Amino acid sequence: MQWWKELDFAIKLPFARDRLVEGYFWIVGVYFEPQYSCARQVLTKVFAMLSILDDIYDAYGTLEELKPFREAIERWDINSIDHLLDYMKLYYVTLLNVYKEFEEEMEKEGKHYWVHYAKEEMKNQARAYYAEANWFHEGRIPTMEEYMRVALVIAGYTVLTTSSLMGMAVILGLSHLQI
Which pTM was predicted? Predict the structure, then answer.
């Protein structure tokens, strides 16, 4: 995808795994029919952004850096960028732009409200990654109940399912996917 090449994350975020092709092949296994190209594009972008978000939390950021990053994601406001480090700014601006693009596309179909749910799941993902990072930095082993609450989010099913439905809403029409 051209947008990914233009971002140049491989150079700008060398700690992050470049999993675009892996994600695309996973997604094409789910949405192989030609009419689902929009869903494939949405999910590929979400998968790529999730992968980098995971790397920021797991492999690179310190707990002190991750707190304002998580808070910025929760606010979902470009004005939150001032308190972020440069590599986080790059990711954060890209994240906001990706979802803005989704909103613009969904607005054409009269289904912009779907993006709200996808954003909320991305925020939930950031919260879960932060909880996991917090345990790691504290050297704390969570209880099974604590871990499972976070692990179910970290697995990505809710954010990917919500994003998938958002991508599908474009072709299925409003009558099939009303909330």
Answer: 0.87
What local confidence, expressed as pLDDT, does residue 170 receive? 57
Q: What is the predicted pLDDT for the residue at 175?
A: 46
For residue 106, which of 173, 28, 22, 49 has the smallest C-alpha distance? 173
Long-range contacts of 122-125 (CB under 8 A, 24+ apart): 122/46, 122/49, 122/50, 122/73, 122/95, 122/159, 123/73, 123/74, 123/76, 124/153, 124/158, 124/159, 125/50, 125/53, 125/153, 125/154, 125/156, 125/159
CB 110 within 8 A of CB 174: yes
End-to-end CA distance of the chain: 31
